[in-house]
Amino acid sequence: MEPATENEWDRLSSSSSDGEEQAASDGSSSQFNRQQHVAFLMMMYESLPHHYQYQEINRITLAHFAISGLCLLGALDRVRVDKDAVSDWVLSLKAHPREFYGFHGSPSSQLHPDDNGVLMHNGSNLASTYCALAILKAVGYNFANIDSKSILTSMRNLQQHDGSFMPIHFGAEKDLRFVYCAAAICFLLEDWSGMDRERAKAYILNCQSYDGGFGLTPGSESHGGGTYCAVASLRLMGFIEDNVLSKNMSSSIIDLPLLLSWCLQRQAADGGFQGRANKPSDTCYAFWIGSVLRMLGGYNLIDKEALRGFLLTCQSQYGGFGKCPGDLPDLYHSFYGYTAFSLLEEPGLNPLCAELGMTEFSALGI
Fold it and tell me: Transferase: is it a keyword of this entry (predicted)?
């Protein structure tokens, strides 16, 4: 995925900003344009537009959106994608064993100059490691060849006394995003020695707000992404059952009725989902909130037709999804648009494993 200064994306976006945004929106239809979405992701896979250069440090995350997106669309075959080349590239980003033996975000993050200007190996981080494993799952890499012990032993050192995780060894924030990354890494590697689940559970429970949602940190405002990280982590760690709303809710470790109410209130009048109260609808929250409802067993309580209608207004005629109606498509919102349509059981899309954010086939290693 090399950045380019001139490519098809530049030609598509060469008109004025007002005109291009209107075209992106008006090009949507009443149908999910699968072939256009495949073409969009293949363009991103083959040559990232120069607009993404400022995200160089997160190249493996962008690769995850492209590769896992193609997997969701059922288009990840050897004619389109060289799976061996993809796995070799991901494995080239493995970190040298310093503080955390995971994966780097990009080739440029593997080295940084010290005080004398000498290039030294930089640290890896939890988010990049999750993305690396997700890609390797998507292309069918044999996890028996991964040094999981080194990853998990070093990852345990990233867990804080309150049960939270930092993404790197020092000097970083700590919140539910990295608790989720740690839980997903342990689940994918089938080894929970990398974290203290009880301490992580305690931290998650402290993040549930008075209104039922979860903030990224204790005491912070409820947020769609934080709520997903909380529920998915508890689900992966085995603390809540699948479809828990059909079980005895009184025995749940979280306030389920309040959480369900908060999630359902996030579907706005336009059919889309908002990440927080009084915010506009956003494509990605159809995944973050929708997946929480799927895991809890309350997805059938939403207005699916209204949600589908909103998402189609965010679909570009060039393929991909924008954040809101009229926005140009980007990799982040495109990927989560595909996951949202998978939750809606769009024909031709592979089923989604909501708690891992990847196809069920990838999660099962099929």
Answer: yes
What is the per-residue pLDDT for 2? 45
Distance between CA atoms of residues 326 and 122, nearest Å: 39
CA distance 87 to 341: 27
pLDDT, one tens digit per residue, over 87-138 is 999 999 998 766 678 999 988 776 665 566 555 555 689 999 999 999 999 9
Nearest to 235 by CA among 363, 136, 340: 363
Rounded CA-CA distance 180/208 in Å is 15
**Distance in angstroms (rounded) separating the CA atoms of residues 365 and 61:** 20
The Cα 323–Cα 349 span in angstroms is 21
Please name every residue paired with 352 in a beta bridge, in sequence order, or none if there are none.
Answer: 359
What's the predicted TM-score (pTM) here? 0.89
Q: From the CB of residue 301, how many other CB atoms can be counted at a distance below 10 Å?
A: 14
Q: How far apart are CA 118 and CA 230, in angstroms?
A: 41
Helix-strand-coil percent breakdown of the chain, rounded to 5?
50, 10, 40
Cα separation, 102 vs 95, in Å, equals: 6
How many other C-beta atoms lie within 10 A of the C-beta of residue 8? Answer: 15
Measured between alpha carbons, how far is residue 44 from residues 74, 79, 239 in Å? 17, 16, 38
How much is the average pLDDT of 12-16? 34
Pick from 227, 309, 307: which is nearest to 263 by CA? 227
